[in-house]
Write a structure and sequence with these properties.
The protein has 365 residues and is α+β, with helices and mostly antiparallel strands. The chain has 10 helices and 12 strands. The protein binds adenosine-5'-diphosphate (ADP) and magnesium ion (MG).
Length: 365
Amino acid sequence: MEEMQSFHPNHLVRTKYENILENLDSGIILFDSVGVLAFVNVQMAKLLGVPRKSLIGSTLTQLLRHPQITRFKRKKIIRIYRETIFHRKRFHELLDECGRSWLITMTYGDQMEGDFLISVKDVSDFKQIEQTAYQNDKLAMLGKISASIAHEIRNPLTSIRGFIQLLRPHLMRLGKDEYARIILTEIDRANDIIYEFLNSSKPSAPQTTIIPVASLLKEVVLLTESEALMKNCEIILQHSEQIPSFISVDVKQIKQVILNLIKNALDAIDGKNDENNNGIIEIGLEQNEKQVNILISDNGAGMDQNTLNHLFNPFFTTKEGGTGLGLSVSYRIIKNHGGSIAVDSQVGIGTQFVITLPIIEMSNT
Ligand code: ADP
Ligand code: MG
């Protein structure tokens, strides 16, 4: 009777452990000291794409020859094996066919009494967070550097402006007032650019106004129409008046973002060099209960994977006179508004940017 009692909980504990291991969301596989596969859990069998039963008792070589192991997986297993045995690496990271990241951990040595334990964990979400944190960090630094440069440039501009005004009567006497006028307008333009930039790169909270998103789009399109016309390009604003969404935004900043995207689209159409095909930029709106999507598509040159990977990095540009700031600044502005930007592009076909912003609930009662 006593024996039964002590056996019973022990037995229970063992099956519980086994159950846990078998159904853990990480994949686990154990090779014993002579290289025979002694344990494999459900998740690992799923990852390998091979039924568990057919795995137990096989060696690594037999596993590699298993008809259900794909070539891709075989290559990865061989690489991990090499790195573990020859370079004594205990951690590996790999990307699978679907672009997910996996962390592979090896445990062996004294504590394992000759066994090799391999665990595989899906770390894609973690990677994503890491990437975003890195991106935000770089943007914050860019914001600080550029804000101080912009600030430093503004001071000399102010004194130049003052002295030109002092010189103006003399220039007038020489019949060169036109020069003074041009210098002054150019300085004012430079000041405007710096002002805009400081405004958008400052990490401070945006100055928000509540405004219907459709009217904001209309205004921006008006601003770009003449430039588009010059480039033989048509801007189509689609049925946006049917979308009643209101957004609470810093109007100047959001206009700047949309302008940036339209300018990029115009450049992409310019860069396509397709005489027979007219450039078209379509701007649309979509909404659901919580958000509104602003869609900006062009039939321009499109982007390759490398460009897509670096798109939002400060100073990344593929244009001769480009600054590579447009999209990184836009990204920051949209983030500050609690929104997001997504992009979809195909070389030779075109590009679509989607800005998502939260909408404001307006009660009509
Ligand atoms: P810039 O316009 O000064 O190059 P951006 O940050 O605005 O800087 O854009 C970065 C890069 O992204 C561009 O150089 C271009 O290669 C690419 N890009 C942006 N928008 C588009 C688009 N609509 N079509 C094709 N490529 C684009
Ligand atoms: Mg740009």
